[in-house]
Design a protein that fits this description.
Blueprint (H helix, E strand, L loop, with lengths): L5 H18 L1 H4 L30 H37 L1 H15 L3 H11 L4 H27 L3 H8 L4 H9 L4 H24 L11 H8 L11 H28 L5
Length: 271
């Protein structure tokens, strides 16, 4: 039995902790998400473990619910981006010709626009709802996934077993999902971890700028925004969500690296 490295164990522990807290937030949180329970920026105590925020809400409760929102949006956006980007990338590589060129040039056009500016323009004219945020982030991030999936698939489609599948008369769906996808999993798994991290940072940035998750919902970027003035007075309320973002991103990266190493070592080439 292969031993799990210490770094991967640490990553698995914190990743599992954050996801479990997100799932069971209503059971874990000591107060309601928007409930005012004390004075402004009260210090840590037995009643409020992390103190209170800028309007007297329990900061621990806000962090738990904020993690739930941040992780949910980042997870859904990552799933959307990988589903769309991978399928389009594989389809373009397998099809080749003008189809490949048309899709690739369109993706290049989207990628030429800075992602944050693109998102800010769209969100300034559309309602900022959770669904809109997930769709927008997923679509923008799918361009990066497309480039990777296509690059990997181009190398795979010239392999003998793919040519054999073509000669057998297999349909394009078979070639994509049965021949290409299983042999492209390793780089895609590593990229999924990075894309999830990017999604966490991106939604936090949008919320900090006021165009992400809207009150009364909480997310980590919004909590930083709500309490940033406290830093001038030595109050650490804005730093706790920053710590949470950092530890989650590092943990996901450690897990993704471990999975990449395992899939690379276990993967046997076909053909």
């Amino acid at each position: 039995m292969t031993r799990i490295p210490l770094a991967a164990l640490i990553g698995l522990f914190f990743t599992s902790l954050y996801f479990l807290m997100a799932i069971f937030a209503p059971l874990i949180a000591p107060y309601g998400m928007a409930e005012i329970v004390g004075d402004v920026w009260e210090p840590s105590s037995s009643e409020f473990l992390l103190g209170t925020d800028s309007i007297g809400r329990d900061l621990l409760t806000r962090l738990i619910y904020g993690g739930r929102t941040t992780i949910f949006i980042a997870t859904m956006a990552t799933i959307l981006s990988f589903t769309l980007g991978s399928i389009l990338g594989f389809f373009a590589a397998v099809s080749g010709g003008w189809i490949d060129q048309a899709i690739s040039r369109f993706v290049d056009l989207i990628m030429s626009i800075p992602t944050l500016i693109f998102a800010l323009v769209v969100l300034s004219v559309m309602p900022t709802t959770t669904t809109i945020l997930i769709i927008l982030m997923g679509l923008l991030d799918s361009t990066r996934v497309y480039r990777l999936a296509r690059a990997v698939a181009v190398d795979i489609t010239v392999m003998d077993y793919v040519e054999a599948a073509r000669l057998r008369g297999e349909r394009i769906g078979w070639i994509i999902f049965r021949e290409t996808l299983p042999n492209a999993l390793s780089p895609l798994v590593a990229e999924m971890g990075l894309r999830f991290i990017f999604a966490v940072l991106f939604i936090s940035t949008l919320s900090f700028l006021g165009l992400g998750v809207q009150p009364p919902l909480a997310d980590w970027g919004g909590i930083v925004k709500e309490n940033k003035e406290g830093i001038n007075y030595g109050i650490q309320a804005a730093l706790y969500p920053a710590y949470a973002i950092a530890t989650l991103c590092i943990s996901i990266n450690l897990v993704a690296d471990w999975i990449l190493n395992r899939t690379t070592s276990l993967k046997g080439g076909r053909g």
